[in-house]
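REQUEST FORM: STRUCTURE PREDICTION
Request ID: SP-0412
Submitted by: Lab K.M.
Chain count: 1
Length (residues): 391
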Amino acid sequence: MLALDCGLGFDPAREEEFLAALPERPAVFLLEPRAAGAQPFLARTADLRRRLERLLRAPQQPSKRLNLREFAAGVRYRVVGSAFEQALTVYQHAREIFPQRYRPWMRLRPAALLKINLRNEYPRCYVTRRILNDEALYFGPFPGRKTAEAFANEFLNLYKIRRCQIKIRRDPSFPGCIYSEMKMCLAPCFAGCTKPEYDAEVSRVLSFLSSAGQSISTELEREREAASEALDFERAAGVHRRIEKVAEVLRGLPGLARKVDDLDAVILQPAAVQTTVAVFPVRAGLIAAPIWLRFGELASQPRSVEEILREQLENPSAAGRAHPVELADHLALLSRWFYSKPRQGEIFFPQAARSGAASARVWPYRRIIRACSRLIAGQSAAESESSAPAG
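STATUS: Completed
RESULT:
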């Protein structure tokens, strides 16, 4: 947990001394109550001193503005370097303090995902915002439900699994639906295919989502190459048109969306301390504790930045499977940050290894280190701008 690592006691008789000790920095703070059993006051702010001055200073005249002067016994706070760190800190403490209402309090809506429920005899792909421990495949997160539905409608045109919500009974007398009439579904409802045939089509859909579309692209490129070598140029042209259609579908795929179990990334954010970068690892959709790269101290250490990152990213501590509620919360936080405009910080995903096992992935360490340099340069520029005298 990102701790509220600073604190001050509040005495109304010494409010000027108290306020002068507070930094004029973005922060997350917790006002501790005087009364036993009262709930603390948790909030975020862009300027800690100014916000607490409004909350704790005695009003000059009667006002409806919230004043906690008689409520607060002290404050605990954390100075943050980015909106992402601030949101994660607020989430962690709100969930601990308000376990029943932290989601509406933060306006934290679960992210939109695609789901294939593999426990169903004839699985289908649909949009959901709920994650369960049901061994289903979850794919996302998307910016919203409309984006997820649009992508699902496009990529499902490449396959023939069902889109209906009826219970499949395999009744030859069943009339079917428009998708079976248009040959866009294998029609298990009226026994238009066998169970193994439908399972094979579902397997192809799972491969498409697990590889973010690379499985079908690779398959079609091989088919086009084989047709060209056999001098069957008409078939090669047809396959080429299918490749173009797949490419058009993949252009609608957001950069963050992928199989949730494979959603690994590192998010780089400026830290509150100068020449320091906060590296937030994301493992299977969960945001882990940050790695603090203090470049001012690293210059005198024997290990390089790449060695530190390798040690942390390639040898993660063993952890159990995340609770569905926690996973949904972390995906919502990731989605809110990634799709925000403008977006502060940078994100990097592991890349497929050029050699070795097909499932092996490597981190782009050089690109990550260059991004750290850009964030530190941005910190220095912001510090210079804030310290420059007003003209």
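NOTES: Residues 54 and 67 are 7 Å apart (CA to CA).
Reviewed by: T.R.
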